[in-house]
Amino acid sequence: MEKQLFFSTNVKTPFENEEQLMYEPFWQLGILKNEETRMQRIEALLGVNQLQEERTKVRKQQQLQRDAIQTALEVGFVTAWIGPSAGEELAFMELAERLNHSERLTLRLVPGPLHIHERAPTLFTELAQQPPLTKKEWSVMVPSFSNVEHKQLVERMDRFTHEVRKDGYFDPEILEALRQFKEPVPIEKVVATVYAQRPEYPVAFYFQRVSENIRKGYIKKEQQAIYLHDELM
User: Fold this and answer.
1) What is the rounded distance in angstroms from the CA atom of residue 116 to the CA atom of residue 165?
2) CA-to-CA distance for 9 and 11, rounded, in angstroms?
3) Using CA atoms, how far apart are residues 35 and 37, in angstroms rounded to an integer?
C-alpha cells in the first residue's frame, strides 16, 4: 500500500482522497520548538487573532496528520511530493527526522510549484514515469531539521538550502509592486502581484505586510485603495 504526501492543500492531484496525506505546518514562517510560541508567531505574521481553543485545535490537527503519516509508514510506503519551497522542504526534513520507518519514505522533487493546477495533469504523468528517490538517495541531500531552528522567515535559496530573513525582508518587493501602478489600487491587486512572483509564503502573510507598511506610513490607504507615500514615488 502506498500513500501520496503533499505539503499544501492547494494542490490538484490525480489521486483519490484515501490515497493522499497532508502536512502543512508553515515552517517557512519560523521554526520554534515550543508549539504555543510558534502558533502565536504564525498568527502575528498572518494577522490572525486566534483564541486558545483554536490554537489547540490546529496543533491537534497537525498531530493527527503526523500520526496518519506514521501509520502509513508502518503498513506500507509514503511518497512525498516537494516543489521548490522552503515550507515543503522543511516539513519533509522534520518528518524524515522524527518518524519511524523512514526507509519507507520516498521523495519526488517537483520542478516548479505544485499549486499551478493547469500544469498538474502533465506534471504528474511525467513524474510518475520516473522512480522516486529512496532514503539512501534523499538522505544525502537532506540536512538535519533539528539544526535549523530559527525564529525568523526562511527563504529557499537552492535545493534544501535556506537563508534566514527578517520579517520585513520582502517589504521592498511589495513597495516596488505598488510603484508600478500609476493610480491607487485595491490591496488585493498588489498582493496578487507579489504572490505571483513569490508563492512560497501564504497570501495572508503579504496582506499583513501591506498592513504593517500602512501602519508605518510607507503606504497610504483611502477606503479600499492603496498608494505609495509621496516620498517613495
Assistant:
1) 26
2) 6
3) 5
Element (H, E) at 138: helix 135-138
pLDDT tens for each residue of 157-198:
999 999 999 999 999 999 999 999 989 999 999 999 999 999
CATH of region 143-232: 1.10.10.10
Q: Which residues contact 51 (CB under 8 A, 6 or more apart)?
A: none
Contact 40/30 with Cβ under 8 angstroms? no
pLDDT tens digits, residue range 101-115?
Answer: 999 999 999 887 776
* 103 in Cβ contact with 76 (< 8 Å): no
CATH class assigned to 1-141 = alpha beta
List where CATH 3.40.50 sits in the chain: 1-141
Q: Tell me which amino acid residue 228 is.
A: L
CB 75 within 8 A of CB 100: no
User: What percent of the chain stands above pLDDT 90?
Assistant: 66
CB-CB contact of 7 with 88 (8 Å): yes
Q: Which ranges in the chain are annotated with CATH 1.10.10.10?
A: 143-232
Q: State the pTM of this model.
A: 0.90
